């Protein structure tokens, strides 16, 4: 819903209860984005971006997948760690300060979630010690990072695949039944956005019914490790947000910027 319709700044500055585009919040570490970066804070009378994800992405290098994957892992893990502390702030204050313009109903929902989350973490710490919290933190994050196979789905589910005439803002990863089971059906991401009301465990059946709309060969097997290597070598644009410009031109600008920055 509304994938690619809003920039990071628009999402963080929004006055609506619902997110204009919630998916964009998960792409800042690994994709090129159009529009201004958010959230922003006032420093010396000027608003400046305050984004762990975009700060990390700034250090990506062209055609260096191992370096870029390492930066991705570090920024992703650090941001998730800081968000755990943000839960504490929200639980105490009753407000999520990253979304200053949101209505009271939004902050009330954030506070309820944060208070439950913090209470459960404190209970786990009291019962099982700090190792229980570490296990929770790692189990929540490591599946999204290389070389975990599920990472291939996570980092490519909202790229900009196109044939020059149209652009698809979501994509799926077809790597067999084992992969669908491991990712709980979320690898059928294009199918999910086409039919968001269908449960994830039935998306594979949808793919079998209409393979011509998703891939020419229903038995095709994607190489998840090649996908990760290619994605970290040169990042794609998020959800066709560059569709109003020639994609090759935009990609060339990014390549030139990285080459000049490394020279």
Care to describe what's here?
- This protein is mainly α.
- 49% of the residues lie in helices and 5% in strands.
- The chain has helices at 8-12, 52-57, 65-93, 104-128, 130-141, 150-156, 177-182, 189-194, 203-209, 224-233, 247-262; strands spanning 40-43, 46-49, 161-162, 167-168.
- It has a two-stranded antiparallel sheet.
- A hairpin with a 2-residue loop joins strand 1 (40-43) and strand 2 (46-49).
| Percent of residues in beta strands | under 5%
Total of DSSP H or I helical runs spanning 4+ residues? 11
Please write the string of helix (H) and strand (E) elements: HEEHHHHHEEHHHHH
- Which structural category fits the helices and strands? mainly alpha
Mean pLDDT: 88
Distance between the termini: 41 Å
Largest sheet: 2 strands, antiparallel
The strands making up the biggest β-sheet line up spatially as: 1-2
Shape: globular
Helical fraction equals 40-55%
Count every beta strand, where a strand is a DSSP E run of 2 or more residues.
Answer: 4
Radius of gyration: 20 Å
List keywords for this structure.
11 helices, mainly alpha, 263 residues
What's this model, at a glance?
With 263 residues, the chain is mainly α. Helices cover 49% and strands 5% of the residues.
Set out the fold topology.
Elements: H1 8-12, E1 40-43, E2 46-49, H2 52-57, H3 65-93, H4 104-128, H5 130-141, H6 150-156, E3 161-162, E4 167-168, H7 177-182, H8 189-194, H9 203-209, H10 224-233, H11 247-262
Antiparallel strand pairs: 1-2, 3-4
Helix pairs in contact: 3-4, 3-10, 4-5, 6-10
């Amino acid at each position: 819903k509304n994938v690619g319709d809003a920039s990071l700044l628009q999402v963080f500055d929004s006055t609506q209860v619902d997110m204009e585009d919630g998916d964009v919040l998960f792409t800042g570490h690994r994709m090129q984005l159009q529009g201004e970066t958010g959230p922003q804070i006032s420093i010396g009378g000027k608003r400046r971006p305050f984004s762990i994800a975009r700060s990390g992405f700034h250090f990506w290098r062209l055609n260096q997948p191992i370096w870029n994957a390492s930066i991705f892992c570090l920024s992703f893990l650090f941001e998730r760690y800081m968000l755990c502390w943000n839960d504490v702030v929200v639980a105490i204050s009753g407000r999520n300060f990253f979304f200053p313009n949101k209505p009271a109903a939004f902050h009330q929902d954030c506070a309820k979630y944060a208070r439950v989350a913090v209470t459960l973490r404190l209970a786990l710490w009291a019962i099982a010690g700090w190792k229980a919290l570490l296990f929770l933190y790692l189990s929540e994050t490591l599946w999204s990072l290389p070389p975990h196979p599920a990472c291939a789905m996570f980092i490519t589910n909202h790229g900009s695949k196109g044939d020059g005439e149209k652009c698809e803002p979501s994509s799926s990863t077809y790597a067999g039944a084992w992969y669908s089971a491991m990712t709980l059906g979320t690898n059928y991401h294009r199918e999910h956005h086409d039919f968001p009301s269908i449960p994830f465990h039935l998306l594979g059946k949808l793919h079998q019914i209409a393979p011509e709309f998703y891939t020419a060969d229903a038995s095709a097997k994607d190489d998840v490790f090649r996908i990760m290597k290619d994605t970290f070598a040169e990042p794609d644009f998020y959800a066709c947000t560059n569709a109003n410009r020639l994609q090759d031109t935009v990609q060339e600008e990014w390549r030139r910027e990285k080459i000049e920055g490394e020279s």
